[in-house]
Amino acid sequence: MTAEKVLPAHVVAAAGVIRNDKGEILLVKNIRRGWEYPGGMVENGENIIEGLQREIFEETGASVKVGELFCVSSNTNSYPGYNGVKVVPTKLILDFICTYEGGELRASDENSETRFVPEADVLGMVTEPVIIERFGTYLEYSGRPHYLAYKTKPEFISEVKTII
Predict the structure, then answer these.
(1) Distance between CA atoms of 143 and 155, rounded to whole angstroms?
(2) Range of the domain at 157
(3) Any bridge partners for residue 66, and if so which?
(4) Are 25 and 116 in contact (CB under 8 A)?
(5) Which of 59, 65, 82, 114 might form a disulfide with 99, Cβ 3.0–4.6 angstroms?
(6) CB within 8 Å of 116: residues ≥ 6 apart
């Protein structure tokens, strides 16, 4: 008898650095991680852009236009889950530059506050090393997406930072 093959499972997620017409960046204060730009997992049946727009709207109340891809990240570590999820698998995360189109900003079940902040203030507010690293690729973006590979648990370890 041969063992059953199991395909590797990766969560696909997307996030957006959302700019308004003043050049400010939309941040959410996540209940577990602090300030970050919004995003989340793409659900079955969604394409990546639809999933990102849904996640942003659910978290912030904002409607956005999704633009350029600036970063592809691999979290190569799985770790214990939460809210009934036993294990959070490895992740592939796609970060996009987005434009705010409207909506009434609000908090959500996942965050306690949503607001636009000057771009120069973002890194002073964000405390999670992986969000700092990913936002840094936005600040360095020059038309070619960056690629990051890292592990977030038990501690943040950045393995690779290259440009695609």
Answers:
(1) 31
(2) 10-163
(3) 98
(4) yes
(5) 65
(6) 20, 22, 24, 25, 26, 27, 100, 105
Q: Is 23 part of a structural domain of the chain? A: yes
Record the pTM: 0.90
How far apart, in whole angstroms, are the C-alpha atoms of residue 18 and residue 38? 8
Residue with tokens 């995360």: 93
Cis peptide before 8 (omega within 30 of 0): no
Tokens in use for 53?
Answer: 């727009």
**Using CA atoms, how far apart are residues 98 and 48, in angstroms rounded to an integer?**
13
100, 6 Cβ separation under 8 angstroms? no
Residue 131 lies in a domain: yes
CATH number for 119: 3.90.79.10
Mean pLDDT per 10-residue section of the chain, whose length is 164 residues: 70 97 97 95 96 98 98 88 78 97 96 97 96 96 94 79 76
Query: Is 149 inside a domain boundary?
Result: yes
